[in-house]
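Project standup — Tuesday

K.O.: blocked on the structure for the chain from last sprint. Re-posting the sequence here as requested.
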Amino acid sequence: MDTTFPPITPGHVHRWGGAGLVVAHRPGRGRAAPVSPVLPPHLSPAERRVVHALPAWRRAEWVAGRVLAKRLVGEAVGAPEDDVEILPRDDGSPYVVVGGSPMPAVSVSISHTARHVAAALAPGPVGVDLCGTQSAAAVRRVGAHAFSPAELALIGTDRPDVLAGAWALKEAAVKADRSGIFGDAPRRVRITGLEPPVLSGRRRAMVWQAGDAVLALVLAHPAPSPSVPAALSSGPAD
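H.V.: unblocked you, prediction finished:
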């Protein structure tokens, strides 16, 4: 089936708008997640404590997301993955620690579906979200909550990839804002275009097709920062 959005190659670090982005197939996809997944050796003691405090069904996806984000951060700042920690704030959003020191100038975002996991890294607020095209029916059911009448007219209801992309844009935007998908936060982010994606406010966005999922990246209030590694602040975008 033809898709609206360009494909993105899994396993490679892509650069867009000063951000780094990687999407990968989840290990063991298609099989039931183990109650106690084998933890990678480069998870820190603090990260391991977070894993063990999670419900059993969330552990494998949490580990997959953090492993990918640690790889992305390590490559960007030139640090071994053992020195990189991705820890949760009180609101659940991830933050970066390298060599025991927080790095407030580097923002990360993580998302996953049953089959894919994605991580993004940027010098400012960033949100990434994956939405499977098989979730289109669920997006239709909650459309009146998340989308305005003008957005619904733009999106339509007959293309699963477009519905998934619109939802992923909303989720990525509220992640970048560190707000939640519940309440009126999704309505405060207006989608005014899809090809290419255009959002309200000082936001930049892009959408790709990642297998049976759609991947959205949103940069909120983008501005260059001299304290961010050159790997994230210069060079051509994919």
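K.O.: great, moving the ticket to review. The longest strand covers residues 203-210. The domain at 14-28+36-223 is CATH 3.90.470.20 (Ribosomal Protein L22; Chain A).
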